[in-house]
Amino acid sequence: MLASIILICILQFKIIENKESNCGCSIDRAQKDNYDRKLFYNVLQSEEGECSTDTKVDENEVYEVTNDMVLIPGREYYIGTDDIIIKNDMEGPEKIVKLDSFYVDKYEVSNSDFSHFTKLTNYKTEAETFGDSFVFVLFLNNTFRDEMKDYRVLQAPWWYKIMGTDWKHPYGPDSDILDAMNHPVIHVSWNDARAYCKWRGGRLPSEAEWEVACRGGHRATKYPWGDKLFPDKKHMANIWQGTFPHHNSEKDGYIGTNPVHLFPQNDFGLHNMAGNVWEWTEDSWSSDNPKEKVKKGGSYLCHRSYCYRYRCSARSHNTDDSSAGNLGFRCAKSA
């Protein structure tokens, strides 16, 4: 089903409606934005005064692009699955694809990497331009959560559309990334990701390339590391632990994103292909709507009970201008 987000007015409040299934994986940016900015920033008032919307990233510090790339040999591979879990996602059937050799990032693009890019190019993300992005409920304090309850996604009320949120302010205008420079950059749209990869002399991976990379050279494996979610009772990925969306036990060590160098997952030596953050691919979801782009891998919010999409064959989609607190990317390059 094609995801769509519309804004509707009820009692002079905004509610964002998501017509995706009950998952809420495909929260798309609304086409119209008529925020009452004065009302919003009044909500941000606290005993310490109004929160600053200025970035706290040190503009004088230079960060190196740290991503290594892994060569994936060209040949025939199997993608998709005959063990279809989510029929509407069109994750099957299994089929053969022939790929040329390509390189793919060993790690997801980090805040450090993206900061280096923006400092050299003065690039502004679409979330910065629009002035908002989507934040998960547990990253908002109770008072703010209650005040902003009418800015939720209707069918996924754990997502709040928060003004002043972008890659430098991932949980709202009073947050920063100073302690998360080695975490994946989030709140980046498909267009933002594509611009970064182009700057690096690369591109986004195709969906087929991404899935082949995910499986590490093996056929029909469910996860990057094999078919068991917890081999030898070991946590292999940053996914939701507990009861979604109210309690995350953090048994895997994280309630949100984790550093990009953790969770090595497959025989290609790639990290975080499942979990942590969704990753953009180059492909469109369908020819009917080329602006809907495929994303793969699931995120730290995925749980088998509601969004079983951290499997290699699983897929979802967002519009190319959408961003959220669990959406990132990695780059590819033709060999």
Strand order of the largest sheet: 14-13-12-15
Q: How many whole angstroms does the radius of gyration measure? A: 19 Å
CATH architecture: Alpha-Beta Complex
Number of helices: 6
Under CATH, the topology is which? paralog of FGE (formylglycine-generating enzyme)
The number of domains is 1
Give the overall silhouette. globular
Describe the structure.
The protein has helices spanning 37-43, 111-121, 126-130, 142-147, 190-199, 207-215, and strands spanning 5-10, 13-18, 69-72, 75-79, 95-99, 102-105, 132-136, 152-153, 156-163, 242-243, 247-248, 278-286, 289-296, 316-319, 327-328, 332-334. With 335 residues, it is of the alpha+beta class. It is globular and about 55 Å long. It has one domain (69-334): Alpha-Beta Complex (paralog of FGE (formylglycine-generating enzyme)). It is built from six helices and 16 strands.
Question: Which terms would index this structure?
Answer:
disordered N terminus; 16 strands; 22% strand; single chain; four-stranded mixed beta sheet; alpha+beta; 335 residues
Spell out the blueprint of helices and strands:
Layout: E1 5-10, E2 13-18, H1 37-43, E3 69-72, E4 75-79, E5 95-99, E6 102-105, H2 111-121, H3 126-130, E7 132-136, H4 142-147, E8 152-153, E9 156-163, H5 190-199, H6 207-215, E10 242-243, E11 247-248, E12 278-286, E13 289-296, E14 316-319, E15 327-328, E16 332-334
Parallel strand pairs: 12-15
Antiparallel strand pairs: 1-2, 3-6, 4-5, 6-16, 7-9, 8-9, 10-11, 12-13, 13-14
